[in-house]
């Protein structure tokens, strides 16, 4: 019988693209690892720690999530639903966080980076011991990318952040619960949810750049909740990476679904 790691590698074919992953049963701690500390561009996974730092500051009393921010024309960047909406509208911080996660809205992300502060996001990450994860540029900042300022992460860091969320220890219990509920509304189902049963509850975030696709989430499976974090880079095409993540996700789901339920 193949091990969980072997099943995943069989599904994703690491000879065709590079990958790193952390899969962990959150009830039994059974874990499968591969290139988990390889640092790669984070794409939109960096929006998870941005969300967490905004909520940490709100919990500390720096501002309320009902605070409203006006979106100006100069704030708008590509890959943002806000570019299609009327300029000058006000949105609550709660709305901007939701847009940043469920639609991966880049304008919302940049407004929240401005609010929270890039240095504070990185200080928050360092405090958690997430040494491979770094926010160095805003979304769609091509000038920063060409200058070598990229956002980075690794599978191990994302898994650590998700486990803290799951155990309601990231920021505090109410904030962690709020973040998980937002992540359960994720609109991108083209990767880890692609082949899962429609009724599966998943709290997750996707990320994509050219030849790079990432997925980080928690799958709620009765008695067998598990982490699924998979980073794929140097793929022949983004479609290949998404399909590989979908196959790997199904392999993991079937593996844990076949196990006895843990009390």
UniProtKB/TrEMBL annotation:
One BP term from GO: beta-lactam antibiotic catabolic process
Entry's transmembrane regions: none
Position of the signal peptide: none
Domain Beta-lactamase class A catalytic intervals: 20-232
InterPro entries: Beta-lactam/transpept-like, Beta-lactam_cat, Beta-lactam_class-A
GO MF annotation list: beta-lactamase activity
Pfam families listed in its UniProt record: Beta-lactamase2 (PF13354)
Protein name, UniProt field: Beta-lactamase class A
């Amino acid at each position: 019988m193949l091990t969980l790691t072997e099943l995943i590698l069989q599904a994703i074919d690491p000879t065709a693209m590079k990958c790193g992953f952390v899969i962990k049963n959150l009830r039994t701690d059974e874990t499968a690892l591969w290139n988990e500390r390889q640092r790669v561009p984070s794409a939109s996974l960096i929006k998870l720690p941005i969300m967490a730092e905004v909520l940490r500051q709100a919990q500390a009393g720096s501002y309320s999530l009902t605070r409203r921010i006006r979106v100006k024309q100069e704030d708008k960047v590509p890959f943002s639903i806000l570019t299609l909406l009327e300029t000058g509208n006000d949105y609550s911080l709660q709305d901007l966080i939701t847009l940043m996660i469920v639609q991966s809205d880049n304008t919302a992300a940049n407004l929240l980076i401005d609010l929270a502060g890039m240095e504070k996001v990185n200080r928050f990450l360092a405090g958690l011991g997430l040494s491979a994860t770094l926010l160095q540029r805003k979304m769609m900042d091509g000038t920063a990318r060409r200058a070598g300022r990229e956002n980075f992460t690794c599978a191990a860091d994302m898994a650590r952040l998700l486990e803290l969320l799951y155990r309601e220890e990231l920021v505090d219990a109410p904030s962690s619960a709020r973040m998980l509920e937002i992540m359960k509304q994720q609109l991108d189902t083209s990767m880890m949810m692609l082949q899962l049963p429609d009724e599966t509850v998943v709290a997750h975030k996707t990320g994509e750049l050219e030849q790079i696709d990432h997925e980080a989430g928690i799958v709620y499976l009765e008695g067998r909740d598990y982490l699924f974090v998979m980073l794929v880079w140097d793929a022949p095409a983004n479609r290949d990476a998404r399909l590989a993540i979908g196959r790997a996700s199904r392999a993991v789901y079937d593996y844990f679904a076949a196990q006895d339920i843990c009390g």
